[in-house]
Specification:
Number of strands: 0
Number of domains: 1
Strand content: under 5%
Structural class: mainly alpha
Helix content: over 70%
Radius of gyration: 28 Å
Length: about 260
């Protein structure tokens, strides 16, 4: 009787052990992929904020000056349809540029440079509380909230807060799971499926970010940094020069511009 029970349970236990090893490998891969995605998001956000503050603001001013120039030319020749159309387009561009800048102007322009310790804390958090490590709907919802908090802490370089989030989860009743090889095998298989789905989502988002205009700007900025140049500062200087040129042209009387 005992031998029969052993023969019946051994394959299941062996499969459970194999699936646990697979799950452990995927957990590590998922944590690393989540870290790469979180890092890229934070780097691009930091870059976008710096670009906005140093280049976006001058560009908004430049668009406004261009609109004023176009409107002045249109006012001087009210029957010229081309100038009237150009003035309307320039004003629309200036309004859009100002609205876009005002929407994001309060964002901080700090550079994002995570330490090895911060990255390690993020990996551990992802391995322990990632939403795709559970098949239970309530536990998954709680993990999603906590993982969002971990992402915010990571972006703010707050290693201690990440540790507190993990501790908050691991001391909660939701962290307790049932027993039994059969039930555990089902949970592990479902967990593996969820993690693989998440890996696919991460791959798609990474691909979208790497194909974005903002990432192309990042490449340009990184290349300039290797040559000890500040690409964004250089862009800002060029825009300021164009602003100065526009202001100078606006100060020229119409009679002098004709000649």
């Amino acid at each position: 009787m005992a031998d029969k029970q052993t023969r019946n349970t051994k394959p299941e236990e062996r499969e459970l052990a194999r699936k646990r090893q697979e799950a452990e490998r995927i957990e590590a891969e998922l944590a690393e992929c989540e870290l790469r995605l979180a890092t890229l998001r934070a780097e691009l956000r930091s870059l976008e904020n710096r670009y906005l503050n140093l280049v976006g603001a001058p560009y908004s001013e430049l668009d406004e000056l261009r609109a004023q120039m176009a409107e002045r030319l249109a006012a001087e020749e009210p029957t010229n349809e081309r100038l009237q159309r150009a003035a309307k387009e320039a004003r629309a561009q200036a309004n859009a540029s100002r609205a876009a800048f005002n929407e994001k102007k309060d964002s901080p322009a700090k550079n994002f440079s995570p330490s090895p310790q911060l990255k390690s804390a993020y990996r551990e958090a992802a391995k322990r509380i990632h939403p795709d490590l559970t098949a239970d709907p309530k536990d998954r919802e709680r993990r999603q909230e906590l993982m969002a908090e971990v992402n915010r802490a990571y972006q703010e370089n707050d290693e201690a807060r990440i540790a507190k989030v993990v501790e908050k989860y691991e001391t909660s009743p939701e962290a307790v799971s049932g027993e039994g090889a059969g039930a555990e095998l089902v949970r592990v298989i479902r967990k593996i499926s969820l993690m693989k789905n998440r890996l696919g989502e991460i791959e798609a988002e990474m691909r979208a970010l790497l194909n974005s205009d903002l990432y192309l700007l990042k490449i340009q900025v990184d290349d300039a940094n290797e040559q000890n140049r500040d690409a964004i500062a250089g862009m800002a200087a060029k825009v300021r020069q164009r602003i100065a040129d526009c202001k100078e042209r606006l100060q020229v009387p119409a009679a002098e511009r004709v000649h």
